[in-house]
Design a protein that fits this description.
Elements: E1 6-14, H1 21-29, E2 36-37, E3 50-51, H2 57-60, H3 75-91, H4 97-100, E4 103-108, H5 114-127, H6 136-140, H7 144-153, E5 159-160, H8 168-181, E6 187-194, H9 199-207, E7 237-245, H10 246-252, E8 258-267, H11 280-293, E9 302-304, H12 311-325, H13 327-330, E10 335-337, H14 340-343, H15 350-364, E11 366-367, E12 390-391, E13 396-403, E14 407-414
Parallel strand pairs: 4-5, 4-6, 9-10, 9-13
Antiparallel strand pairs: 1-7, 1-8, 2-3, 6-7, 8-14, 11-12, 13-14
Length: 418
């Protein structure tokens, strides 16, 4: 049986730069930073006091969620519901009762409801176990993003959360595409969500010395591939896409942003947090995705890099891209950028948001920049689309997502050519 082709027909974004697909995309093309001092909690005692927060969410969320249902969910689930609502509307998706059985939902989440967990522990310590909310567990567990989205849209196919640290959102899209390829589903609403700008989230990463400490210049703190980088910046948000089988999308005359043609996944099997030497695991992930797509490395015009702004990680990814793409990369024919320079690192949501950006880059012929790249690291010698967006007609883009524990995911998105 021939495998189904998989296309993206809807995109929804909730990001630190804006709420909405168009708003986020235009902000990123303009090189706008969404990183600012933390407002979600009192961070006076912390060494790191800035992050990529979603601005204005408390008011915006009522566009997507009934007020009475807010008590059921943590902030990460709210983000997922908002992004899913926008993606479904963007796709103009309408499902019959029968089709709902062939429509599923995968939302990758790295850490789950940290804020709810922290509040629950505080209630337990201050007021005792009898005062714990019955919604505490539904607020904490990571799969409730997919569960709430499935309930909101009547998606009765498979619903689950894959947790693979910062690769979670990309893995969710890759796995959702596989279900459609095999002909088991015709529609998948999928992506990633995260909300870890909390005392435990910031404190935990701070304790690992993983975060930038540029409190005096938050907008300039995330600087992938720059020699002055000193760590990543925590961000929050969600990216949800609607995937459909090409058969279904063509039948209903859907607008197609891009086709998902390649999916690669690997493990470094090397270290708790550090990448394998020379990005060896990332190399295998990218090569698997290219092989799956049936294209040569020089067919790729754009890579949305994992590019977190860490001293070790950026070098390893640059080495991996160089090893896989060879002269195509070193001659700077391949363009690479890290949109984390503007949004920070959305952790479990990052790969989903960035895959959506690859689809938009293909659809609109525009490449978002890597901002704050003023003094390129000599060990990162590629073309990182420094500081200013560019225009380019590209047929294939690749998105990289790597996570703690050595987990790697690469996705190839391609221009739909009929």
């Amino acid at each position: 049986m021939a495998s189904e082709r998989v296309v993206i027909t809807g995109i929804g974004l909730v990001t630190p730069v804006a709420i909405g697909k168009r708003e986020s995309w235009e902000a990123l093309l303009a090189g706008k930073s969404g990183i600012a001092p933390i407002t979600l909690f009192d961070c006076a005692a912390f060494r790191v006091r800035f992050a990529g927060e979603v601005k204005g969410w408390d008011d915006a969320r009522l566009r997507f969620i009934e007020r009475k249902k807010l008590k059921e969910m943590d902030r990460f689930t709210e983000f997922a519901l908002g992004a899913a609502d926008m993606a479904v509307k963007d796709a103009e998706l309408s499902l019959t009762e029968e089709e709902r059985n062939e429509a599923g939902c995968f939302v990758g989440v790295g850490l789950g409801g940290l804020s709810t967990l922290e509040k629950t522990k505080q209630t337990l310590m201050e007021k005792g176990p009898q005062k714990i909310s019955p919604y505490s567990i539904p607020g904490i567990i990571a799969n409730l993003a997919a569960g709430q989205v499935s309930m909101a849209h009547g998606l009765r196919g498979p619903s689950y959360c894959n947790t693979s640290a910062c690769s979670s959102g990309a893995h969710a899209i890759g796995e959702a595409a596989e279900w459609i390829r095999r002909g088991k589903m015709h529609v998948m609403v999928c992506g990633g969500a995260e909300a870890t700008v909390t005392p435990v989230g910031i404190g935990g990463f701070e304790a690992m010395h993983a975060l930038s400490k540029r409190n005096d210049n938050p907008e300039g703190a995330s600087r992938p591939f720059d020699s002055g980088r000193d760590g990543f910046v925590c961000g929050e948000g969600a990216g949800i896409v609607v995937l459909e089988s090409l058969t279904r999308a063509r039948k209903r005359g859907a607008r197609i942003y891009a086709e998902i043609t390649g999916y690669g996944a690997s493990s470094d099997a090397h270290h708790l947090t550090n990448p394998a030497p020379h990005g060896e695991g990332a190399q295998r992930s990218m090569r698997m995705a290219l092989s799956d797509a049936g294209i040569s490395p020089d067919a790729v015009g754009y890579v949305n890099a994992h590019g977190t702004s860490t001293p070790v990680g950026d070098i390893a990814e640059s080495e991996a891209i160089t090893a896989v793409f060879g002269h195509h990369a070193t001659s700077k024919e391949l363009w690479v950028s890290s949109t984390k320079s503007m949004m920070g690192h959305l952790l479990g949501a990052a790969g989903a948001v960035e895959s959506a950006l690859c689809a938009l880059a293909i659809a609109e012929g525009k490449i978002p920049p890597t901002i704050n790249l003023t003094n390129p690291d000599p060990q990162c010698p590629l073309d990182y689309v420094a500081n200013t967006a560019r225009e380019r007609h590209i047929k294939h883009a690749l998105n990289n997502s790597f996570g703690f524990g050595g987990t790697n995911c690469s996705l190839v998105l391609s221009r739909y050519a009929g």
